[in-house]
Amino acid sequence: MLKRGVAMLWSVSALLAGNVLQQAIDGAAPGSLLELPAGDYHGNIVIRKPLILDGKNQKARIIGEGKGTVVTIRSDYVTLKNLTILHSGSEHERVDAAVSIKKAKHVTVDRCRIDDCLFGIDMEQVSRSQITRNWIRSKPFSLGLRGDAIRLWYSNDNNISANRITHSRDMVVWYSHGNTIADNFGEYSRYSLHFMYAGRNFVTRNTYEHNSVGIFFMYSQDSIATKNVIKSSIGTTGLGIGLKDCSNFTLRDNTMIYCARGLYIDRSPFQPDQRNRIEHNRILYNSVGINFHSLSIANDIVGNVFKGNIDDVYDDDQVHIHSVQNHWEGNYWDSYEGFDRNGDGIGDTPFHLYYYADRMWMFDPNVKFFYASPVISIMNFLAKLAPLSQPLELLEDPKPVMSETQLEKGKV
């Protein structure tokens, strides 16, 4: 059972005069609860024993020295909660952070406010820990020079939930498996969530807005992303969800809206004997709904809503079209022009998507000035009416759904 430490009642001036907080930590018995009254406390501090540090409604502020890491944790069973943590160093090579956790398990960081820190929470070889309900912002640097809000490195079976991240660089999950990433909000960063060589992770109910990239999975497998909302990932690198060399993935019930590219698929699935399942997602009002790059086949793309995109599907391989080699079935396409005479909710004829005149901008970037313009629309119409050559087929959906409402209610 945890022991309750003596509440610390030193004055603010005394606390700033020397690092009495570190003295209190060093003098506390393992498992103690240290409650910090409102005030400013001198960092940097190191915790090497099981301990609870409670800041009481974030009014206790631990202020770093402007170099190094503000709070370093090197023990199991440490809890930080209700603290404000400020003013780390600015050196990337040292990973200067608000909180550094290394070679530990059962660590909790809850309801902390982190600001003016290069990296937010750095986790290296950490397992079975809880990072929840924190507010995190990096230093006021340019996007590429900020640190990562939360960084998992060889860290497994952790819960990263209900955090709010703003004006950071990335949140990264590298070489880390079995983690749950849920109910987080991220804005005005580069990669809201970036996986590398990571497997069996569960990503759900996150909302990411106004970032360069929403969620990007690279060299990973056996993960599920469901019920996430990615909005307004724009610019030349903008995309909602990306898969690169990823196998045995499930993307289900996600919404990608107002992005440059809603979904980006690059050489996925990577393993030749595996498939990816992309089902019941809403791909809405993007410049490109799904962008295929390189050899990307064997994806099951089923029951999705494609609505309001300038281009629903784009394959950037100028020699071979691979998008047609995926399995498309039961999707709703707002550009489908068929009928449903028997009223079963399925179009009587397959939905085919071809490249017409709009393919020209791929060969000459200057043509993109006219992208989605009346001129291109008229050329497309004439090509469909009286084609001079066989257009390139991007996909065939043999059972297009007539109504997105029916699809969402599971009636077809």
Structural features, described:
The chain is mainly β. It is 8% helix and 40% strand. The chain has five helices and 41 strands. The strands form four sheets. The chain has a 14-stranded parallel sheet with strand order 1-2-5-8-11-14-17-20-23-26-29-32-35-38, with no helix packed on it. It has a 13-stranded parallel sheet with strand order 3-6-9-12-15-18-21-24-27-30-33-36-39. A twelve-stranded parallel sheet has the order 4-7-10-13-16-19-22-25-28-31-34-37. The longest helix has 12 residues, at 374-385. It is elongated, with a radius of gyration of 25 Å. The chain starts with a strand and ends with a helix. Residues 1-17 have low confidence and may be disordered.
Task: Summarize the SSE layout with pairings.
Layout lengths: L2 E2 L7 H6 L2 H8 L4 E4 L3 E4 L2 E3 L3 E4 L5 E4 L7 E3 L4 E4 L1 E4 L10 E9 L2 E3 L2 E3 L3 E9 L2 E3 L2 E3 L12 E4 L5 E3 L2 E3 L3 E5 L5 E3 L2 E3 L3 E6 L5 E3 L2 E3 L3 E6 L5 E3 L2 E3 L7 E6 L5 E3 L2 E3 L3 E6 L9 E4 L2 E3 L3 E6 L5 E4 L2 E3 L3 E5 L11 E3 L2 E2 L17 E5 L4 H4 L10 H12 L6 E6 L6 H5 L4
Parallel strand pairs: 1-2, 2-5, 3-6, 4-7, 5-8, 6-9, 7-10, 8-11, 9-12, 10-13, 11-14, 12-15, 13-16, 14-17, 15-18, 16-19, 17-20, 18-21, 19-22, 20-23, 21-24, 22-25, 23-26, 24-27, 25-28, 26-29, 27-30, 28-31, 29-32, 30-33, 31-34, 32-35, 33-36, 34-37, 35-38, 36-39
Antiparallel strand pairs: 40-41
